[in-house]
């Protein structure tokens, strides 16, 4: 099993974010992939998406700016199925 860790530091938002110049809270985000050929290929694609700034976004939650997952789906749990961002999900690797 592959476990991806994204450490997003707290900082100030930039131009193009919902409230430029405002501080936001970061956090640790985990994603899971199977440790096989497809999972490793997907991990590399997710790494490219992260480098391009496509993995996370800044959203206002209860009056506070926070880093949250973006539009690219990630499996954040090993279980619970598709409804809980987990496995089993037979189509995840081909869809992501």
TrEMBL record:
Subcellular location: Cytoplasm
EC number(s) recorded for this UniProt protein: 2.3.2.27
GO biological processes: Notch signaling pathway; protein ubiquitination
Pathway: Protein modification; protein ubiquitination
GO molecular function terms attached to this record: ubiquitin protein ligase activity; zinc ion binding
InterPro entries the record matches: Deltex_C, Deltex_C_sf, Deltex_fam
Reaction it catalyzes: S-ubiquitinyl-[E2 ubiquitin-conjugating enzyme]-L-cysteine + [acceptor protein]-L-lysine = [E2 ubiquitin-conjugating enzyme]-L-cysteine + N(6)-ubiquitinyl-[acceptor protein]-L-lysine
Keyword Zinc: yes
Family: Belongs to the Deltex family.
Name of the featured protein: E3 ubiquitin-protein ligase
């Amino acid at each position: 099993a592959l476990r991806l860790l994204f450490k997003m530091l707290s900082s100030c938002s930039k131009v193009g974010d919902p409230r430029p110049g405002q501080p936001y809270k970061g956090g640790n985000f985990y994603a899971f992939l199977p440790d096989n050929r497809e999972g490793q290929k997907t991990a590399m694609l997710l790494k490219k998406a992260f480098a391009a700034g496509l993995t996370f976004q800044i959203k206002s939650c209860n009056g506070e700016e926070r880093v949250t997952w973006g539009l690219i789906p990630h499996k954040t749990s090993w279980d619970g199925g598709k409804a809980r961002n987990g496995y089993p999900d037979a189509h995840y690797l081909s869809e992501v």
